[in-house]
Amino acid sequence: MREMFDKNDSYIIAELSANHNGSIERAEAIVRAAADAGADAVKLQTYTADTMTIPCHNEYFQIRGTLWEGRTLHELYQKAYTPWEWQPHLKSLANTLGMDCFSTPFDATAVDFLEQMNVSCYKIASFEVVDTPLLKKIASTGKPVIMSTGMTTLAEIAEAVATLRENGTKKLALLKCTSAYPAPPEEANLRTIPHLAQTFHCAAGLSDHTMGSAVAVAAVALGARIIEKHFTLSRADGGPDSAFSMEPEEFSQMVKDIRAAEKALGHVNYSLTEKEEESIIFRRSLFVVKDVRAGESFTPENVRCIRPGYGLHPRYYDEILNKKSTQNITAGTPLTWKHLLQTHE
């Protein structure tokens, strides 16, 4: 396991969320599949329906305009939550497989529970950015914090960051997030990622709800140090989050594409690479393309700028025209200064 704020490689998180569909065996299978797909970490969510809201059916608690239309908040969370008694086991399994495992707590009791599990860090969901008491509780642990920023204004992010730092958070990462499920790519606004890093002097990344991996790879190219994607065994299996989750083969390909993008980014470089050194001989140069007799002038008919690169540099073309040859030259000979009566100074 490695430091999540590593400067070389992006830290890639597979979000389990509600994709276990109420089965610990499925949750275990998802953890194993995430490891096989190349995830650095598996993330859980620690709440119950009662720690999240109340069982109320009035209009305020009805869900509208999302995948979960027609349910109450309490009904959704009752279906989606990950039983707390599973979580130490899932963390142990993830660790055995070489991954980190941490969670998003949604109230103070969840933080206390996760402290007993000795999680390595905490995730703060976009919806909880405004929960100042929860931020203070999380910060008091002194552990690294990753905070999503969906639905937040710059002022709200600034307030949350100040709250965390003033109460004990030393290491912080902010994730650009579009809180739509799924999110359209045109609403990703990835250029916010480097701005978050510069504004708040911290690592920045992406909590991605778009379909596919293109947005995540683009985010890495813009400097994202952390990528988080919802992960499921199969979208066809259903579940509250399945419609916008990645399947194992998709996640694995995303990891490969991200790692390739990281290598490709490299550094500012204008020197030749090793492979370019091998290819440089195939650039153009000046060649005699028609037999030339000693004393004959070089003209556009008998000298051309062609590949390969064994002759004089093309910059000397105008200079050699009408100069006379020192010797007989066969077509196909690279032109050099020794072929000219007047040597190059």
UniProtKB/TrEMBL annotation:
<dbReference type="InterPro" id="IPR006190">
    <property type="entry name" value="SAF_AFP_Neu5Ac"/>
</dbReference>
<dbReference type="GO" id="GO:0016051">
    <property type="term" value="P:carbohydrate biosynthetic process"/>
</dbReference>
<dbReference type="InterPro" id="IPR036732">
    <property type="entry name" value="AFP_Neu5c_C_sf"/>
</dbReference>
<dbReference type="InterPro" id="IPR013132">
    <property type="entry name" value="PseI/NeuA/B-like_N"/>
</dbReference>
<dbReference type="InterPro" id="IPR013974">
    <property type="entry name" value="SAF"/>
</dbReference>
<dbReference type="InterPro" id="IPR020030">
    <property type="entry name" value="Pseudaminic_synth_PseI"/>
</dbReference>
<dbReference type="InterPro" id="IPR051690">
    <property type="entry name" value="PseI-like"/>
</dbReference>
<dbReference type="InterPro" id="IPR057736">
    <property type="entry name" value="SAF_PseI/NeuA/NeuB"/>
</dbReference>
<dbReference type="GO" id="GO:0047444">
    <property type="term" value="F:N-acylneuraminate-9-phosphate synthase activity"/>
</dbReference>
<keyword id="KW-0808">Transferase</keyword>
<dbReference type="InterPro" id="IPR013785">
    <property type="entry name" value="Aldolase_TIM"/>
</dbReference>
<feature type="domain" description="AFP-like">
    <location>
        <begin position="285"/>
        <end position="343"/>
    </location>
</feature>
<protein>
    <submittedName>
        <fullName>Pseudaminic acid synthase</fullName>
        <ecNumber>2.5.1.97</ecNumber>
    </submittedName>
</protein>
<dbReference type="Pfam" id="PF03102">
    <property type="entry name" value="NeuB"/>
</dbReference>
<dbReference type="Pfam" id="PF08666">
    <property type="entry name" value="SAF"/>
</dbReference>
